[in-house]
Structures are given as C-alpha cells and as structure tokens.
TrEMBL record:
GO terms for molecular function: G protein-coupled receptor activity. It is a multi-pass membrane protein. It is found in: Membrane. The keyword Transmembrane helix applies. One of its GO terms (cellular component) is membrane. This is G-protein coupled receptors family 1 profile domain-containing protein. Residues 105-116 have a biased composition (Low complexity). It comes from Patella caerulea. Residues 96-128 are annotated as: Disordered. SUPFAM superfamilies: Family A G protein-coupled receptor-like. Keywords: G-protein coupled receptor, Membrane, Receptor, Transducer, Transmembrane, Transmembrane helix. PANTHER family: OPSIN. The chain crosses the membrane at residues 21-46. InterPro entries: GPCR_opsins, GPCR_Rhodpsn, GPCR_Rhodpsn_7TM.
Amino acid sequence: MQKWNSKDVVWTKQELYLLKMTMIMCGFYLLAWMPYAIVNILYVMLPNVRIPHRISVIPSLCAKSSHTINPIIYFLMNKKLRSFSPSLSCLRKKKNKEASKSLSPTANVPTVNVTTSGNQRECKLSSE
C-alpha cells in the first residue's frame, strides 16, 4: 500500500469554495445558537438567577435567525445567484476595461419600450 502524503492532496477551486461556505455557515450557526445555549445553561445551573424577560428574548431571536442567515450567506457567496439581482450590482466584480472596450456600440442590445395610454401600459421588447 502506498503511504498517504498530505503533499499529494490537490484541492480544486470548487472544493475550496464549498469548504469556505461550509465553514462560514457553521460559524454563523454556532454564533446564532451560542447565546441561547448560554442562557439555558444559566437557567439550569443557577436556578436562583433571574434574567429579565426582555433580555431573555434576544437569545431566542438569535437562534431563530440562524435559519434565515444560511440562505443569505449562500446568496452572497454564489456568483450565479448574484448575477440575477441587478439591485446588488455593488457585489459583482468589476469587469476589465479591456473587456468593455471590445463591445461595440452597434452590438445587438435588447431594449424595452414602454408606452402608456390612459390606465394601460404596453411593453415591447426589441433588439436593435
């Protein structure tokens, strides 16, 4: 049998991406549930300690927010999903100036023409 050597391991770009996303999601999961766990351990270990109700709600909300944080992390880290959101153009990488120069002004760019008459709108898509 051949000895396994750590120098023989080659990580692909996709494996590194998945590892990074998994570590970030696990980290946020732990951060979200840690206050809830601490408060519950305090209740069990020190039953005489009284935490005000308004303060004890915060750890529960943090724990429940962990389910909403994961999709947000996935959306922010996934390039394909970010490209579908024009309002988050600040998260996209800027294109090279050379790439933008290669586009000619006469390229076929689809345009949307909107006409309004009374209460009705008419939209037409044209590629000129």
